[in-house]
Design a protein that fits this description.
The strands form three sheets. The protein has a five-stranded parallel beta sheet with strand order 1-8-7-2-4. Strands 3-9 form a two-stranded antiparallel ribbon. 31% of the residues lie in helices and 18% in strands. The protein starts with a helix and ends in an 18-residue tail after the last strand. It contains six helices and nine strands. The chain has 203 residues and is an alpha/beta fold. The chain is globular, with a radius of gyration of 19 Å. The protein has a single domain, classed as Rhodanese-like domain (Oxidized Rhodanese, domain 1).
Length: 203
């Protein structure tokens, strides 16, 4: 292979990276975190994208409002659009015999993203970055958005709190927005939240 050809291929590769913004987190092994578009971001990559062009990116947290209030949330969020809601007044038993609070998926998820885009003056062609606790709900949300025609639905693969530690059980201390030292806050920002819908019958 000649030096000229090697140089050309190197330039071509550089241009390719520039075209994608050089943001390319590895595909997560967990299926729930995977998306059809394979647009994955680390928290630091997401933060860099948002800092460079905040007016043309929609940044949404899909955790429950309670998680944002009591665990904290990223600075710079545009909206909290929950992937699901939890009814803390009702305890149910799962098919496996475990007890948990009743919950239901947000039936207006995509519609609320559409409204958030419109409010910011954006379209489905613009980048949307989704974050949750550790990447599951954001991955499933990005998949729903893709099926609804969103062209650039990114998921932050390790979320806000990150994955569980293998050496420190029940602790999320290995990755994620918080553990990466990125700006976050407990501050209550009422403009982030949307009214909670009435739960479906039987929920």
């Amino acid at each position: 292979m000649t030096k000229k050809l090697i140089s050309f291929l190197m330039v071509l590769g550089f241009v390719g990276l520039m075209g994608t913004g050089a943001y390319a987190a590895e595909e997560p092994a967990k299926k729930a975190k995977q998306t059809p578009q394979k647009l994955y971001l680390t928290p630091k990559e997401a933060y860099s994208m948002i800092q460079k062009d905040p007016k043309h990116i929609l940044f949404v947290d899909v955790r429950t409002p309670a998680e944002l209030l009591f665990v904290g949330h990223a600075v710079g969020l545009d909206k909290n659009i929950p992937f699901k809601y939890i009814d803390y007044s009702k305890i149910i038993t799962t098919k496996k015999g475990k007890k948990k609070f009743a919950s239901w998926k947000n039936p207006n998820l995509v519609q609320q993203f559409d409204e958030a885009l419109k409010t910011k003056g954006l379209t489905k062609e613009d980048p949307v970055i989704v974050i949750c606790r550790s990447g599951d709900r954001s991955g499933m949300t990005a998949t729903k958005l893709y099926k609804a025609g969103y062209k650039k639905a990114y998921t932050i693969v390790t979320g806000f709190e990150g994955d569980m530690s293998k050496t420190k059980p029940h602790r999320r201390s290995v990755n994620g927005w918080k553990n990466d030292g990125l700006p976050w806050t407990y501050k209550f920002q009422p403009e982030l939240f949307i009214p909670k819908p009435t739960p479906p019958a039987g929920k």
